[in-house]
Request: fold
Amino acid sequence: MSSRDRVLGRVRRALADVTPDERPYEEAVGRDYLREHGRRTTGQTVELLAENLADYRAIVHRSDAEEMPLLVMRLLAEHGSQEVLVPPGLPPEWMSAADPVRIHDRAASTPQRLDQVDSVVTGCAVAIAETGTIVLDGSPDQGRRRISLIPDHHICVVRIPDQVVSSVPQALERLVPDRPLTWISGPSATSDIELDRVEGVHGPRKLEVILLS
Amino acid sequence: MSGTFVGMPAFPKAAHDAVHNPVLRGNLRHATHTIRAKRARAVAELADWAALREAGRRIKDHTLRHLDRYLVQLEESVTAAGGTVHWAADADEANRIVTRLVKETGESEVVKVKSMATQEIGLNEALLDEGIRAYETDLAELIVQLGKDRPSHILVPAIHRNRGEIRDIFRSEMGGWGRPAPEGLTDTPAELAEAARLHLREKFLRAKVGISGANFMVAETGTLVVVESEGNGRMCLTLPETLISVVGIEKVVPTWRDLEVFLQTLPRSSTAERMNPYTSMWTGTTDSETADGPRAFHLVLLDNGRTDTLADQVGRQALRCIRCSACLNVCPVYERAGGHAYGSVYPGPIGAILSPQLRGTASEIDASLPYASSLCGACYEVCPVAIDIPEVLVHLRERVVQGGPAVRQGNRVVLKPAKGHAAERAAMRAARWAFAHPGALRTGQRLASRTRRLHPRTLPGPGRAWSGTRDLPAVPPEPFRDWWQRSRGGKDGVK
Ligand code: SF4
Reply:
């Protein structure tokens, strides 16, 4: 007997008490929890996002299309970045004022190579106000998962208000499961040493979020 | 289940030793109280907590009651997305599968993201026997691994170590595993974390094989979910060419939408955060055009006692557990005894009901675990999937004491009563009667509340031995059931 048959056989015998006409999934699982917590205007939702991002030690900036290139330039300069990773579909105008050398993530780039890059700039798929979370789904303006992971400094651009939702249920509705997804809430952190929170063990230690209107 | 710590004394002995270690007690007390208070605040932010908890309970219960169907569906979805599914009936089989898969890649090292399932089966040791080194990459797991120690908490496995001890471990051990600790390393958490970053980065960047567990698997889509904080999970899940995930069969949920419940309840219950810093979700492998992440993905579905647990109609609810560790942090017994006393990778209240079910109650430690509780009910109250841990504890005590039918490795067996439990047996009959007659239990609790000022600090008669080593818990002014009924109107679906 294969292990598959053995395990499934054990499961079936273990469930001998379950009657075949049990309630189907839709009935068995009530959904009477909230779709979002509290009523907010669009402006308030964006405000809450900014607050919750900052609460988890992300650095929040606001910008419009015109100021954007200067802001990106300034943030990269402040970090002292010589090289910056950019995904293939990042709007080129965002980087039009920046000095650092732009590096693209090619199939041949080893993780060791990417480790020498100082910063990365990406877009995002959606941002969740209630939890202060940004979600990347590997679209062309976000690139592969590894580019937002290896550099120590991540600048992530959220288009407001279109990319902002209130809650986790609303975010899941917008996302496509067959894309690789990374949910990011604040920079990398650990509380493993006497529960003192320390930013960054392995992921970027500095996360800057630009709310772009 | 392997992973019983060899020569482990029964719980009372192990706990006795731990209680007399003041450093350990201090570390634990600080930690559990800190998380506990933060968690209460995080939960209070969500007005629909009770409804989320009930939905979580129902999703998990429904899945468990139709587990065969959802496992088959999961297998189909993962396969369709380019992954390969393996089934493992027990620890040895899972270890053999993983070892073979690693050997097929030609590699002799792997990076691991913290996984209770792989600890449960003793994977690192099994790999080492075959000449494969497994590097733990979670900071706490690294501390445990370098210190040749054992984890003592689900979420913060090195909770029993303070910063000075951690610095000493890093200084003396890191060099033997790779990059040594920086010169002049102090004991500030930031410096210790930096040392771990440098030590591990070297391993991540060259790793060809990653091994993980998963918090959830979605049957409908074949998506796996890993929830973490440090980014070591993302490193292990995305940089290697081959990814092997070893996951207990109880981690499946039916639909994508179900994640909306658990991604709200898990982080708040475990680290008391609105959301944990990183969550990774992947579905099989990506096409060669995007080539995001490992080119080969293997999912090893692990039974190892889970189907035996499923066969127990009272005990099966333990499989709802999402390993948030909230029950550990509120447990007065855990707080004093520490995680090691439970002799298993699953400590605390959940360990007290899960380990004896996964492993059976034949060993002394497993037979003693259902007694590692004061039945105060705090664990049930915080559990985000409403596992009635006290109910299962009482049920398991009865099984230890009276014996009776059970399922072991898929076979029906009749357990013999344990020796030396005659007095307990009488006590259990009483407890069983009370739990089977909720009205009487409630009346008893109310009576206890009303007379609480008159209660002695120690028990009279044969109970003296019990209360001689512990303070009696203060009886609350109002029984929890009454408070719940009054303040929540019984709307949460609690029986
Ligand atoms: S039993 Fe409940 S509270 Fe304890 S770890 Fe599992 S889910 Fe969390």
